[in-house]
């Protein structure tokens, strides 16, 4: 979609963090924005910030893991702003734990919010995009959608799922005007859970790289305007490393340990077990949030 001014975007997980930055970046390009998340108070503040940029903005409290709320979300966006031209699947939750310490409910909830909701929202808006012959879907995955980390097994699995789904949809709809992109941020500084980890002294190894919410937001706009299949947003040249790990998966476990990411995962898991962060927090609206 080379021209996005005047279009309508729906952004999930938009009450805080990366979602708000994405909304502002799109609004600055003249895109009308619908903001969805579970936090009503946070959403209203986000709506005020976005509408101040001169576009239409609506805040719609939504739990994207609930089918009836997803359906109501799409209906409200269409009635209050217009058909969804751009969908940004940003909502997500994360929990750092030893795999056997995850409850069944925690696993199901993370998959429902991080992965299933994104697939079903895409399924809901895609027919309209195809009929209007314009549209773009951006899935906000993570560096962990390319290289998984211990103690983040479920989160890593959901982000790998988003990467794979994006690739499959691009191939399936390659002859249509609808695009699909995945954006994979590294450790996001200045906002979200990783910033809390840094404040608590749990700093990830320098080799893992860093990024900012502003850079992630700019990457989303770039993905839409230039129909980019995938953008990794990280301060380090990670792609050669990821290519190597894809070719030689046997290196993964030893590499993660040798660069110190295994130990970082252990520290993050210990913080979760100590009760610093809750399993049930929603990306963009509560404290249990990380984009890596």
What's the gist of this structure?
47% of the residues lie in helices and 13% in strands.
Spatial arrangement of strands, main beta sheet: 3-2-1-4-5-6-7
Annotated CATH homologous superfamily: NAD(P)-binding Rossmann-like Domain
Count of runs of 4 or more consecutive helical residues: 10
The major pleated sheet works out as: 7 strands, parallel
Question: Could you walk me through the main structural features you see in this protein, from its secondary elements to its overall organization?
Answer:
- It is built from ten helices and seven strands.
- The protein is an alpha/beta fold.
- The chain has one domain (8-273): Rossmann fold (3-Layer(aba) Sandwich), CATH 3.40.50.
- A seven-stranded parallel beta sheet has the order 3-2-1-4-5-6-7, sandwiched between helices.
- Helix 1 (18-27) runs parallel beside helix 2 (40-51), helix 1 (18-27) crosses helix 7 (213-226) and helix 3 runs parallel beside helix 4.
- The radius of gyration is 18 Å and the shape is globular.
């Amino acid at each position: 979609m080379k021209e996005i001014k005047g279009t309508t975007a729906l952004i999930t997980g938009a009450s805080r963090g990366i979602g708000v930055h994405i909304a502002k970046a799109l609004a600055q390009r003249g895109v009308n924005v619908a903001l969805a998340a579970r936090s009503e108070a946070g959403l209203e503040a986000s709506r005020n910030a976005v509408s101040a940029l001169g576009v239409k903005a609506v805040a719609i409290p939504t739990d994207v893991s609930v089918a009836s709320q997803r359906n109501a979300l799409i209906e409200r966006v269409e009635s209050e702003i217009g058909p969804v031209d751009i969908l940004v699947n940003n909502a997500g939750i994360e929990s750092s734990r030893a795999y056997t310490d995850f409850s069944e409910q925690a696993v199901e909830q993370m998959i429902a919010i991080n992965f299933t909701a994104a697939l079903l929202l895409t399924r809901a808006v895609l027919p309209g995009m195809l009929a209007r012959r314009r549209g773009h879907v951006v899935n906000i995955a993570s560096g962990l959608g390319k290289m998984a980390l211990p103690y983040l097994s479920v989160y890593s699995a959901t982000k790998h799922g988003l990467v794979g789904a994006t690739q499959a949809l691009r191939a399936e709809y390659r002859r249509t005007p609808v695009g699909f992109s995945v954006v994979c941020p590294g450790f996001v500084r200045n906002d979200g859970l990783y910033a809390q980890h840094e404040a608590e002294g749990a700093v990830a190894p320098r080799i893992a790289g860093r990024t900012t919410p502003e850079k992630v937001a700019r990457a989303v706009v770039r993905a839409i305007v230039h129909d980019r299949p995938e953008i990794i947003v990280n301060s380090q040249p990670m792609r050669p490393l990821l290519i190597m790990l894809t070719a030689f998966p046997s290196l993964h476990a030893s590499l993660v340990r040798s660069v110190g990411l295994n130990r970082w995962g252990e520290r993050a898991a210990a913080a979760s077990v100590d009760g610093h962060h809750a399993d049930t927090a929603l990306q963009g609206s509560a404290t249990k949030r990380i984009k890596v």
